[in-house]
Amino acid sequence: MIGQTYLAGTFTLPGTSITLNRMGYGALQLAGPQVWGPPRDIDVAIAVLREAVASGVNHIDTSDFYGPHVTNQLIKRALHPYPSGLVIVTKVGYRRGADKSPIPALSREELVDGIHDNLRNLGLDTLDVVNLRVSGNTGRSEGSIENPLSVLAELKKQGLIQHIGLSNVTPRQIAEAQSISEIVCVQNFYNIAHRNDDGFIDSLAETKIAYVPFSPLGGVTPLQSSALDAVAAALEATPTQVALAWLLQRAPNILLIPGTSSLEHLRLNLQAAALRIPSEVIPDLDAIGRTPGH
Q1: Is residue 82 annotated as a catalytic residue, yes or no?
Q2: For a tag on the chain, would you pick the N or C end, based on fewer CB atoms within 10 A?
């Protein structure tokens, strides 16, 4: 498995010595239903984390928003003291209400508290990478992000954060952000069927900024799914594996963070690193993004 994982290649975050295997792992699904509370089986969640790292994953995406606090505490329990080279990327900017709803948390106090919560729950003195989450999962606004980003920039100067990324942002916002702090990655909604960020990805690639798509099969319609199923059957792979492999081949700056709470699904996801989509199949996959529902 470890050999297959490395077949995805590597990417070095700009202005850093951090080189990531492009096939990472997202911890969101380790929390309970609706990303709330503990998982049904804590032992399995810990086993998933340990096997991911043992298989060559050196990039875990998480947030104290998940649970809340659950996934970070699981990561600490499973992996601390952390192996050399493991990079944990977390995010701030939202919190959870008592009714499980997401609530923006972009004030200075909320951001500072969020950083300290992440440090405590992960058992760290400094955070490798922190993404500022600007808006909801798929919708984005063009508002200024100067105020919250300036708070993170201050915390970076204090040594609590090593590097800063952005989540759910637009090209205009990253341009604004780069006048405040170096940005090493962008995490947005993007997949084989939802390609609004095509031009954005290409421009980020030119400046060597990592692009981390979430929800590799999110929002896929039944018609799109049937087309993906047909390609997957022809390649003797699962639809998820094809969707992940397509992302890896889409651009060299794309890093993947597929999440799962299942050891079986983890292994299938990691095997996508070894899947090569033939050039003659790419037009069929491109057509998925042009079907109704895109």
Answers
A1: no
A2: C
